[in-house]
């Protein structure tokens, strides 16, 4: 089973990283017989979707699992009728999920890629570009903002001006992020894991 990392964040929160090596039919037959996702409309050949749902199923030894989504398409789980917060991400050959019955959660995974420098002005403010000079810092900044966006969960957010991350270095394992909207203002701790050539950022609140 290609579950390559499992982190116990606290007594109620689990983070799983799945390395995708299976064929679609393997994931479907081995892991998804207990899970339903009524909102899914694409092909079951979608490996990212299948791997993320396999990771969800791996969190629970038994029980019926249903993925449900709110009006903004933000997912949550019902496991034998019990509500769980969940956030899902995928990048290239990996998928990851973070799950908690008691804490709001958000997660993002990105591969370090120098091409991000071509689009940095679309998501990074002038203040952020004063410290985010390398493609690794820019990738961490992008991933952190994706995690902030998922935590807010209501779409219609300007990454460059309404999501902000305080100055950090490539080796920092906890960043400080801000969601700055007229009707919603939060400062949040963003946790960082680096897994090979990938960065993983998450919030547990």
Features:
alpha+beta, seven-stranded mixed β-sheet, 205 residues, five-stranded antiparallel β-sheet, globular, 12 strands
How would you characterize the overall build of this protein?
It is a single chain. The chain is of the alpha+beta class and 205 residues long. 24% of the residues lie in helices and 40% in strands. The chain has a seven-stranded mixed beta sheet with strand order 1-2-7-6-5-4-3, covered by helices on one side. It has a five-stranded antiparallel beta sheet with strand order 8-12-11-10-9. Helix 1 (24-31) runs parallel beside helix 2. The chain is globular.
List the helices and strands and how they pair.
Elements: E1 3-10, E2 13-19, H1 24-31, E3 35-37, H2 47-58, E4 65-69, E5 75-79, E6 82-91, E7 94-100, E8 105-111, H3 120-123, H4 126-129, H5 135-152, H6 159-162, E9 163-165, E10 174-181, E11 184-195, E12 198-204
Parallel strand pairs: 3-4
Antiparallel strand pairs: 1-2, 2-7, 4-5, 5-6, 6-7, 8-12, 9-10, 10-11, 11-12
């Amino acid at each position: 089973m290609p579950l390559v990392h499992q982190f116990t964040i606290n007594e109620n929160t689990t983070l799983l990283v799945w390395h995708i090596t299976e064929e679609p039919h393997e994931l479907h037959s081995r892991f998804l017989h207990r899970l339903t996702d009524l909102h899914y409309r694409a092909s079951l050949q979608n490996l990212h979707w299948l791997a993320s749902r396999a990771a969800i199923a791996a969190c629970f030894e038994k029980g019926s699992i249903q993925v449900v989504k709110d009006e903004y398409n933000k997912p949550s789980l019902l496991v034998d009728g019990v509500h769980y917060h969940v956030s899902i991400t995928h990048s290239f050959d990996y998928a990851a999920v973070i799950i908690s019955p008691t804490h709001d959660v958000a997660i993002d995974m990105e591969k370090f890629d120098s091409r991000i420098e071509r689009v940095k002005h679309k998501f990074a403010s002038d203040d952020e570009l004063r410290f985010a000079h390398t493609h690794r810092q820019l990738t961490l900044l992008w991933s952190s903002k994706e995690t902030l966006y998922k935590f807010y969960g209501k779409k219609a957010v300007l990454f460059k001006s309404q999501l902000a991350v305080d100055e950090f270095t490539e080796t920092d394992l906890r960043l400080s992020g801000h969601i700055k909207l007229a009707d919603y203002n939060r400062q949040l701790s963003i946790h960082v894991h680096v897994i090979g050539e990938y960065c993983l950022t998450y919030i547990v609140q």
